[in-house]
Design goal:
Length: 282
């Protein structure tokens, strides 16, 4: 089975329709773009042609929204087949999804937490393996933000690592989700990070969040990234080496110049830790 590691490089940006034309006319200084395949699979006409123009010129990866890996509903294998065809059509090599669920007899339009239990590990890992069998490649699963932990038999990191090991999949490391969860559920973010199987990291997300209270953060992807999240990204590079990292901004999208300033910050942190690793290896 094909691995999905090392297929993109540098600092990436989530592709949004609001600046699609700009990307085509004036390419941005980013290493790769990320799209939700569900938002593009059925798109034709002008937008479809514009999207084709992007995938012909730039590295693009898929980040799914609705596969619902933790659901007890039957796995939507038709969606997986549609994603496979979409990826083949646009020469997209990497597909990631959330370690969560969003359906129960129909879509719930929210990413809900999976109970941290041994039964759930086996259930989710089997579904991930089936997705990988259909696609013919490994996928990356993302550590999700959550606001309640029901039926918790193990810690979040124990659950996440058990799923990844049993499914034999890769990791989409969401730095902001670690930070948000560490505040909301009162654990050590760096200790969580250290416990990750770093060799499985395909790429990472960084994003902003909303501060509801000092001890309650909401993962919105709708604000600037704060300094503790940037520092946690640097710690990840220190621990595991520099890996591709994407800026997520889904709401309150600012002018492109502001987005590119945050992309530049990713590059600066990557360069700093890349240089440090090079010195240590010399």
């Amino acid at each position: 089975m094909d691995t999905t590691q090392n297929l993109v490089q540098g600092a990436g940006l989530g592709l949004r329709r609001s600046f699609l034309s700009h990307v085509i006319d004036t390419p941005l200084d980013v290493g790769f773009y990320e799209v939700a395949p569900e938002n593009w699979i059925t798109i034709g006409g002008k937008l479809g042609k514009q999207f084709r123009a992007v995938t012909e010129r730039h590295a693009v990866i898929c980040h799914g929204l609705s596969l619902s890996l933790g659901s007890t509903d039957p796995l939507d294998e038709q969606l997986v087949l549609s994603v496979k065809q979409f990826m083949h059509s646009h020469q997209i090599k990497l597909y990631s999804e959330h370690l969560s669920y969003c359906s129960k007899n129909g879509h719930l339009y929210d990413l809900l937490p999976i109970p941290f239990t041994a039964e759930a590990v086996s259930h989710v890992a089997a579904r991930i393996r089936r997705v990988q069998d259909i696609l013919g490649q490994r996928i990356a699963v993302e550590n999700a933000s959550y606001y309640a932990a029901l039926g918790q038999e193990m810690s979040e990191i124990e659950f996440f690592n058990a799923v990844v090991a049993e499914a034999d999949c890769d990791i989409l490391l969401d730095i902001n989700n670690i930070y948000v969860n560490s505040i909301n559920h009162r654990y050590d973010a760096e200790a969580f990070l250290r416990a990750m199987p770093g060799q499985r990291i395909s790429y990472a997300h960084v994003a902003g969040h909303y501060v509801e209270a000092d001890d309650f953060l909401v993962d919105t992807h709708g604000a600037e990234i704060i300094d503790p999240v940037w520092k946690l990204l640097g710690k990840a590079y220190e621990l595991f080496g520099v890996f591709p990292t994407l800026l997520e901004r889904d709401f309150n999208i600012p002018p492109l110049a502001e987005l590119m300033r945050e992309v530049a910050t990713i590059k600066d942190i990557q360069s700093a830790w890349g240089a440090q690793h090079a010195q240590q290896s010399a």
